[in-house]
Specification:
heterodimer, A: mainly alpha, two-stranded antiparallel ribbon, two-stranded antiparallel sheet, 16 helices, about 75% helix, globular, B: mainly alpha, 17 helices, about 5% strand
Chain lengths: ~350, ~350
Amino acid sequence: MSAVTETAPQAKKTGLGAYGTFISRHAAVVPTFAAILILLAMQIGGELYFGRFVQPRTLSALLLDNAVLMVLAVGMTFVILTGGIDLSVGAVMAFTGMVGSTMLSNGTSPLIAVPFMLAAGALVGLVIGVLIQVFDVQPFIASLVGMFAARGAAFLINLNSVKVETESVLWLQTYRIKLGDFYLTPTGILALLVVLIAFLVLQFTRFGRTVYAIGGAEQSARLMGLHVARTKILVYVISGLCGGIAGLIMTAYQGAGYPLNGVGMELDTIAAVVIGGTILTGGRGYVLGSMIGVFVFGTIKSIISFMGAEQAWMRIIVGSLLLLFIVVQRIIVARSTQRRD
Amino acid sequence: MNILDRMLKSKLKWPLAFLVALLIVNTIIRTDYLKITVQGEKLFGEPINILRNSAPLMLVALGMTIVIATRGIDLSVGAIMSVSGAVALTYIDKHEDTQTLGTVFVAIGLAILVSLALGAWNGFLTSVVGIQPIVATLVLMLAGRGIALLITKGFITTVNSDPYKFMSQGYVLFLPFAFFVSVAAILVVSLVERRTALGVLTESVGINPEASRLAGVRSRGIIWGAYIASGVLSGIAGILYSSNIMAADANAAGNLIELDAILAVVLGGTSLMGGKFSIGGTVIGVFTIQTLKSSITSIGVPPAASPLFLAGVVIIVVVIQSSLIQGLFKTWSSRTSRTSADAAAEKVEVAK
């Protein structure tokens, strides 16, 4: 699905002139662009409606409160770009959080516990990847198995929350870097760093281009001699690793590990990634878009808490927004590729 | 022996063998596992519990089978269950005469109608707008529970209505009424899909949508119908669920049932890639999952570890069903059946 070659004649047909040409040339960017517009509209609307909505405090809290979701969304973006899906992210986060908090509360040094958490997350990802690539299991089923396994393992470690008192881990959350009225926590920096690294990897490395190629057309990617098998396993390992990082951030955020953390978070993550403009069939999307999607998600949350509305509305709004975005994506895809029935 | 022969050749061999193995393991561990006792006009025992408790999952999984056969997936089944239960119980709650059959029938009719509309919405998004099924149904999966919460105003609506309670807890002819509901659903679905051309058309849409469209199959209507069927069946499942606890719990009703249903379909040998589907396989898959759940406690696995246990079992089943292992089986069996002369000849060839 190369957007450029197929959409060029379309632009002439629609006859929208410069605007049409721009849209068709940059079809892949449009959903992300729309997400940015919606984010701005929501922030401005929130400010006009509530007053005191766009404040350094709320904006800083937006990053702090959504750092976990952002890291998970980065991992999910890799997986979705290859045309797969990873339902295990929330459970992996809970599992690695339990592993880490149990080790830390037993007096293990964070220098050992943190790498162990990341490795545990990556291991779950590796199992999912091998099931998909070697045993030809559907990504949906394989990651579902991963989700069950990680959730069960989290409960097996402890049924209750495990308190963490290791100062270096809690520092990630409590330390604040002040920039005027804005503040940044190490967890927020960690999340932004993950986004930055993922962005660089996807845009400027051979691995990143292979990810896009697999999502575009797996068969072609294989015929081109790209390392399809290795890459497909690796994206799930990356998603698992991100689950591990999210587990660390969550442990710092709550000061504890809890086996019920992140139930249903896989859906929030998928919603954020889709809102950010990544197309679920794979091959198109941006990790920066996923970051915007997470901010959109977080802004909806804070608007609802400002309004004091019922949580029921959160689901309905996220659902409708998701619908809006996929319809927009659908129109764009339908324009640039021949429609099938 | 004819039946046994056919069974061994059929695709249901593995799922069935697995279910039987599971039952045997359970009986070894707890000798009275399969024991059924008669008390008054009712049968009791673990197998009866499995038959009754599997009814909601059975309905959902049957709908899921048809949707998956069209190369789709329906993630919203749990949400539809919670909406349907909320509609039915809120209607009964608002009426004074909660005990009359009339109220209950109207409540059930309303709930099924709403579920039908929700299924039609899914079908509209997938077949007319052309959105990927997994995303199209994700919309309702996210929003559906919110709608159910709005209907119940955020509370867990409880009612007292004997006719409504009868559906999941009543007995007819020694057996639970819910079991008859699932038998009726199995019969209706198999008659419609297998005694008319609809099943074949559904498979053709799932195998190659483009080719079936060119061959004159109205794929749009068939896909739409599949989602409507799934919606209606989930709605009935939601009624059964709410009748079992006599409460509309918008958050707990049908929670994660979409995953169980998809697992049941896959365990029954229907590929998620669409096309060929097996209703018998799904029925076996549902019983397997329900038996697994009941055996997890009876085997003595701590309840907390049950998802891990389930994951282990699913890994074993999908790995056995995978083409890699099946290919190894085939080469292994053909090697052993080959005559020694052949093998010797091959050796000479290799030597040359």
